[in-house]
Amino acid sequence: MHDLPLSLIGGLTGIGQFMSRGGMIFFWLFAITCLLWAVIAERLMYYGAGSQRDIRRALDLWRGRKERKSWYARKIRAALLSQVGLNLTRGMTVVKTLTLLCPMVGLLGTMFALIALFDRIALVGAGNVSTLAGDLARAAIPAMAGMVVALSGVLAGFYLTRRAAQAVTLLEDRLGLDR
């Protein structure tokens, strides 16, 4: 069995120390982050192959029609566009919800840490300012972590939404109506 490189072990130790500083809230934030990125990864994989299959199916159905200019044909075209659009945007509500949840969970962790800090001040007093400053800085870590995760979710969400809109627009152009 091969030994893990020391840099990897050091990195894992650093992650463990960071997680322990954030308290129990960090484990909730970690779970939300894993779920968020699982949904984002699924969407990226779908855009790679599944969306092309759905678009091809819609194009085949449309091209298989003999008549493409009646009211009925327009409704079928709209239904094909709608179905592909729904498939492309599936899961985006989950991405947006989890992204919005991350800063709230981080702030909750900060509030717990501040409450613990104020309890400590009430018990022992505020004699050692450097210790209190360290505890106060540690209290901000969960909020910061929540914001970092939320920022990554916002960026990924923008990318996925833009990619879905572009695919629907391209399909709309390819599903031409006869004049």
Automatic annotation (TrEMBL):
Domain MotA/TolQ/ExbB proton channel, chain residue ranges per copy: 67-172
Regions crossing the membrane: 25-46, 98-118, 138-160
Major location category of this protein: membrane
Keywords in alphabetical order: Cell membrane, Membrane, Protein transport, Transmembrane, Transmembrane helix, Transport
Pfam families: MotA_ExbB
Membrane-topology descriptor: Multi-pass membrane protein
Any one GO CC term of the record: plasma membrane
Family classification: Belongs to the exbB/tolQ family.
GO biological process: protein import
Protein name stated in the entry: MotA/TolQ/ExbB proton channel family protein
Localization (cell): Cell membrane; Membrane
UniProt entry tagged with the keyword DNA repair: no
